[in-house]
Amino acid sequence: MIKYLLITLFGGLALVIGCQTQEPPVASIVVESTAAIDTVTGLAIDGNFELVRAHCTACHSAKLITQNSASREGWEQMIRWMQAGQGLWELGENESLILDYLSLHYGPKKKGRRTPLTQIDWYYLQE
Fold first, then answer.
1. 4 lies in a domain?
2. Which of 105, 114, 125, 124 is nearest to 52 (CA)?
3. Cα(45)–Cα(53) distance, rounded to whole angstroms?
4. Which residue segment(s) compose the domain that 67 sits in?
5. What are 12-63's pLDDT values in tens digits?
6. Strand pairing of 35-38 and 29-32?
7. Which member of 31, 74, 82, 99 lies 3.0 to 4.6 Å from 86 by CB, making a disulfide possible if both were Cys?
8. Phi, psi (5° rounding) for residue 31?
9. Total domain count for the chain?
10. 37 assigned to some structural domain
């Protein structure tokens, strides 16, 4: 019994000391081409960044935004789905600003990961 009590006590003490020595993450900006990206969330930074971060990451990771792309209508459908079944509150006049941000920075992609291969001199393996 005392053994488990000591293990719990020292484990909790180590956790408290470890948390106090670590500095909290600091948001900074990384510039990739012309887009500024928040290094904490991975979201594009513009005038509506804080609004989107506050509303969207209150419930889910920013990865759910950055890994997706949709038109303004597509993002609106996702918002409606979250409001209907996931507990998302009414966004009011902020909804238009959030949709502007999402469709601008995470709109449909014009091309895939790479351009198709062309002018390739293919060869056949000999057995």
1. no
2. 105
3. 10
4. 25-105
5. 444 444 544 444 444 433 333 356 899 999 999 999 999 999 999 999 999 9
6. antiparallel
7. 82
8. -100, 120
9. 1
10. yes
